[in-house]
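User: Fold this, then the next.

Assistant: Folding the first:
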Amino acid sequence: MKRFQVSSAALTIGLLLGSAGSSAAEVGVTDTEILIGALGVLTGPLYNNGKTIYDGVETVYNEVNAAGGINGRKIRYVREDDACKPEQAIPAVKKLIFEHKVFMIHGGGCSNASLAAMPDIVKAQVPWVITASTAPQLTDPVNPRIFTTMLAGWMETAGQLQRLIDTGAKKIAIVRQRDAWAESRYKPLLDSFAQAGRKPVLDEEISADPSDATGVALKLQAAGVDGVVAVLFPKAATVMIRDMYKIGYKPLVVGGSAIGDVKAMDQAIGIRGALDNFQALSPTKSATDPSMAQWKAKVKKYYPQDEFQTWHMFGIASGQFMVEGLKRAGRDLTRDGLAKALNGLSVSSDAYAGPISCAAENHQCYRSMAWFSFINGDIKEMGLTQLK
């Protein structure tokens, strides 16, 4: 009987040790590898945008792997296509979680697809660092394991207003197109006006596909407006700025990332000098900035068919943030440990206009934007805005 009791005790200890050993092996982590999944648009009309973001992320990971990895492990990055469609995002994220068995997800482009994937990610308690989706409800309220390295949608209009205030505009107006996209940014913009102790001098709506905006331009001019927050897509913005220029009216117009390709805006308007008082935001520096030459070369090394662009820079900045987070989480890597490591982490990226900084109470970790104009045939950086 005594020998049986000793054997039982030994067996119990062995089972406990075995259980402890198995719990230490986190999903997606081996002694030599960390498996990370990307969810994003890889087919369809937005294919190039999604692919280049993840090429940027993987360029960072490839460079880290070439230098020996992180805490003795190399990163393997697997991609699944959501096609920018909610109905495809759900099976794609399930495949990452349950078939690939990834440690975490690092991706997310189209907000509608990311929102559809979110319930499965939350249920599985998989860490998720979002690269490009802007829907604020992905990260607000805070989920302990979900972070974003992209501007949330409300930040753009807040930044546009702040830019006008910083440049000295006194009479600021809103011009927005008449659709759901603009409406989603409109209330946050009014909140920003209230927080700044201001009211818009005029609040004008135009069609998303107008043929003429002379009437709006004349109203703004008559009211003495010297700054315009443009909540517009390219077609509406080009018509408005064109018609302002035609009547000799040049207030400072600031646009969001939807009209951030200032060179394309110039080509669409086709009038030299019409954009001299137009600025649009971007989360990144210019893709032609000399500081990006090294990253341009690195992307070309791994993806020779890619033409370096802003989308790569979204991925590069997010990848740099992720690498520092994994380093901070240490060799004993767990999902919970990574989430804790990302809280309080601040990373300065050479691709972004400002730092990526997370806090326990705020997982919308990026709040900076650069402003660009197209003057005399060149893209020029005009300044930076850092939201508080």
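Now the next one, as you asked:
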Amino acid sequence: AAHIRYMAAGENLALARTPPMAHTGLMNSPGHRANILNRLYGRVGIGIIDGGRHGLMISQEFRN
């Protein structure tokens, strides 16, 4: 465990064929869009793995 301290955190998950498609889908979802635009979050981590026939599995981890 990294013992990261934070006051606010959020997460977005997406499954899509390309990163731009995932971004479009997330921005068209009110809850995911709110995470992306939340001014409390000053840090973000992004992970992308190949989900095979399901496309890319993408995660966005946010914290202050």
